[in-house]
Prior knowledge:
By secondary structure, the protein is an alpha+beta fold. It folds into two domains: about 140 residues, Rossmann fold (3-Layer(aba) Sandwich); about 90 residues, Elongation Factor Tu (Ef-tu), domain 3 (Beta Barrel), CATH 2.40.30. The protein is about 15% helix and about 30% strand. Strands 7, 8, 9, 10, 11, 12, 13 and 14 form an eight-stranded antiparallel sheet that branches. A six-stranded mixed sheet has the order 2-1-3-5-4-6, sandwiched between helices. The longest helix has 15 residues. The radius of gyration is 19 Å and the shape is elongated. The mean pLDDT is about 90.
Amino acid sequence: MAFLPSGVVTLLSDLGLDDASVGILKGAMMSRFAQVKIVDICHSVPQKDVLWATYALAGCYRDFPPGTVHCAIVGPGRGSATNVLVASRAGHIFVAPNNGCLSKIIVENETHVRRLDIERVPVAPIRRMYHTRDVVASVGALIASGKLGFEDVGDVDPEPFRIASLDLTLGETHAEGVVLGSDRFGNVFASINASDLPGHDLDYVVEIDGQQIPIVPGIHDAQPGKPAAMFNYSGMLQIVERDGHADERLNATRGTKIRVSWK
């Protein structure tokens, strides 16, 4: 599907909201495209947690219409502004440092990837302190405006950096992943997505730390005070507890093993 810019840009970052960093990003974008429509996905990605960002980006982009540009700014930068990727998939454009943020976006025969050539793209002036941030935000805005085409950003990158292990192992009758983190409600998120599984839906058996967790269609189907598994809006497996905190009950932290089995 060809990319036709809609003027919408999403932002995903680990910058937080305690200082002016996110505002600076938006200012850089509006300076290039005053009519840009900016949607904040999340600015509370754990600091430098590229794996978390990878799953978040892959899980949410489909909720936006084709023509959307998605900017991910999560460190480390792996070469700063001289090492930024622009990827095209299913009518969407993704701009991010070449540090693994796009590992689940880049799919063979579905995604086209180019390495940003800073000499070709009109993003100056760039402040040294905000080098990568300025470049990613500015390029995203220029593409969203239609002033910059995907083919014009730079040469094809045949070997973009990808995380060697996405903490997901698939077998004939099971999938093994890890806990990526939890939200402020105590819901636990895992590195297993419904799209990774064969499609038996509620016939799955979920185990975490040796404890079997029943799968339910939604949180209101869970029994109060007992953890339950479900697939959230983006297809990611999560463990919830109705009227409680699943992360505390299960003592689930980043890296805790989680397994889904089926017959």
